[in-house]
């Protein structure tokens, strides 16, 4: 099956789109308990799960490796962490929720009063029942996160404090999947894999990327080669960029996926230049779906690494409500109840629609340019006249009216405020009827 046929079948209901959403939600549920960070066993475990159904190859980069201005850090792993009261009850317990431990905390064994503990405790007074997510990747420290209501209920102690972690030379790990196409030119899809039990940020992005990869790998053929990166945020993408100079010149389009399972409409963030082909394709799809298109900002996820002036790669970012704009962001409230299969399904289809534009946008020449051709004798026009033109007929008229050899289908879609997939289908029918041919 071609990508165009796959997209059309999902849009029409011929294929069950919601079932794809349920499958992605199920994958997220399996990954949710894993404690991930920028290095360590959690990232490897996550990549192992992805590799069960996709040919994801694990790459390992030793600690201490230089990556431009960054250095791959020592590897962090955690066995246990808790705060216990004088009766031995764990009042804060990493095993109950991995957000309780500040990521990259150093090892600690101590007995402390509450006053001594306070500098190492993090809570959200305005969200007293939620656990915040905090990290200390590049500064040796330790800490615990807990609901503010629990913090306010704690007495002076003393408390047994245990952080059973290791920070030692190891490796940074990322996953890479390449789906070959007819061309060596590449489309890169990137999703960060460094967050612990947070569903929307970014198990949703991982799940959508994996499902898109699965779909593209199943196609009869692809115009482009597709590279999927599952890497820790910032240090992961920078490390990948530092090790793949030979790939960068082949990248024609790039998309960072994050936060695609929560509420809110789709939001596309443009590349730094703002006018790349990926920007035009994604802006068209997102706008048609009632979403929002935003300009570039050097703050966010890994799109800011790919767009750095030294690379200037054509990367945009697709999300739903962006990071920091929903209260559940980076808290325990970003759990599996915060995401929905329907939102995952729409996000997945939107990504496929963007890819459909990238794969199938081209310029055509009208082979009957002297006036409107007679569509009826070719079975392309209703036999009974007098009615308003159907959407299918209007799509053919728009394509014929602008196919001058230099105006692409996406150009026509923007001009006509029309759906790209409908124009793509119209062009196919017109070409079959001998009225249209791809421009040379």
TrEMBL record:
Q: How is the cofactor bound?
A: Binds 1 zinc ion per subunit.
Write out the entry's keywords from A to Z: Aminopeptidase, Hydrolase, Metal-binding, Protease, Zinc
Task: Tell me the superkingdom of the source.
Answer: Bacteria
What are the required cofactors? Answer: Zn(2+)
Q: Known Gene3D superfamilies for this protein?
A: 3.50.30.90, Winged helix-like DNA-binding domain superfamily/Winged helix DNA-binding domain, Zn peptidases
Using the record's annotation, list all stretches that form the UCP01524 winged helix-turn-helix domain: 363-437
| Pfam families, A to Z | DUF2172, DUF4910, HTH_47
Q: Which residues bind Zn(2+)?
A: 195, 201, 330
**The DUF4910 domain, residue ranges:** 25-361
All copies of the DUF2172 domain together span 75-166
Which GO molecular function, any one, fits this protein according to its record? metal ion binding
**What protein does this entry describe?**
Aminopeptidase-like domain-containing protein
